[in-house]
Amino acid sequence: MKKHNKLDKEFLAKAITVVLAVYVFVILDFFNVEEYSNVMSRDLSTRFFSYYYPRVPDDIVVVNTDKDSVDIWPPTYLDYTKWLEFITDFNPKAVVFDINFIKRRNDKNKEDFIEIIEDAKANGIKIYGINAKESDTDIAKSLIPVGTRWKNLEAGYYPIKSNDGILMASTRIFNDFYQPINESFTVPMFIKWPSRPPKEQLSFFGKLTSGFICLIVTCKSSSDETPYLDKFKAQDIFMNNENAQKYFSKRIVFFGSERKASKDFFDNPIYGRVPGVFIHAMALDNLIKYQENYYKRDDSKAIIIGLGSGSLIELFILFMNFYLFYRVQKWVDKVKVKNSKKALKVLKKIFKWSFICILIVMIGVMVSHLYLRNDPGNIIGLMASNLFIYELVYFLLLAILIKKPKPKKIKKRN
Q1: Which element (helix H / strand E) includes 62?
Q2: Which residue from 17, 30, 197, 252 puts its CA 20 to 30 A from 133's CA?
Q3: Domain boundary among 280, 296, 312
């Protein structure tokens, strides 16, 4: 009886240690461990599923200005007039300026720019842009206002509305051309990024293999190699009519800037740092592909005690791991580990149960992510809190360090 109580106390001590560790490093999140593992989990999930992103034709093209677009920065109103006039000649659905036209001392040709905007609107082309406090009021009132800035939102997410309550650039376009934004669209979206187009058509398992390779060997590329959306530098849009018709007619044109001094750059797990305009373009592409089934931030729709369905699944997984650990621990405590052979036997047993636990984690996260359309669960955090990891390391060390008993030498009788 005393031995049984001793074993129970040992298990209880281990369990309390793990619970305290989870509380300190995950719930209180000292040292930002939870935040870091969350971001890493989302990045790994995005890479793994990047080859499954729907590759149907899209309506989006991106035009960017950079240091080579003009002789002297910033571009003048005459430059914007020429660019906009060329694009609107080929009847796009809309042009979205992710550029804040602030008040300038030298506003030469501003009236010409406004005139081109008004002409485009008269021809049924919608022109969207930023309307902020520092914006030039004459230009801003000619643009359909969109939200482009947000605060206090985690990396990887895109809000439906800005902090001012205005529909963001992508959601405004989606609302006006594809599907009305209603209450089901109020939850921040998790942006899915597609992989670089494969050289050949991949099967389901081919995509699975490519995604797995993308986890190990990063598939990031520089912003100039983002191939998924058609994109041009502003100075390169002056092409022949046939190509211009192909790239601009009946499409949504996002117009932004990729000048590094603007600091309007964001990280993503596939292409590295990209200009901010790509965030809006990719968010719109997500909405076109998934509509109201876009991937949502899990805790935005709480079910109980402030937790969403994905978080509840993660809690269930943790409790399941505790239960399995308790069952295996009772068996382990009965085994007397005296040599490496015995330690290896225990190690095999624990490895089998550990594999089952990891499988449960993967299934739970996939149900949450693929079926419930929540953002990817914190897979790394769940794996790290798996109690079997401790046991595996412990008995592996035992197997290595415990010396095997040397066979006794039999003395020969004379």
Answers
A1: strand 60-65
A2: 252
A3: 296
**Is 308 a domain residue?**
yes
DSSP 45-60: HHHHTGGGS-----SE
Task: Pick the more confident residue, 88 or 42.
Answer: 88
The pTM assigned to this predicted structure is 0.80
Is 409 among the domain residues? Answer: no
Q: How many domains does the chain have?
A: 2
DSSP 406: P
Q: Which has the closest alpha carbon to 190: 269, 130, 256?
A: 269
326 in the same domain as 212: no
**Separation CA 230–CA 102 (nearest Å):** 28
- Contact (Cβ atoms closer than 8 angstroms) between residue 174 and residue 94: no
Is 57 a domain residue? yes
For 212-247, the pLDDT digits (tens) are 888 877 665 544 455 578 889 999 999 999 999 999
Are both 251 and 318 inside the same structural domain?
no
Sheet holding 126-129, edge to edge: 144-145, 126-129, 94-97, 252-257, 60-65, 230-233
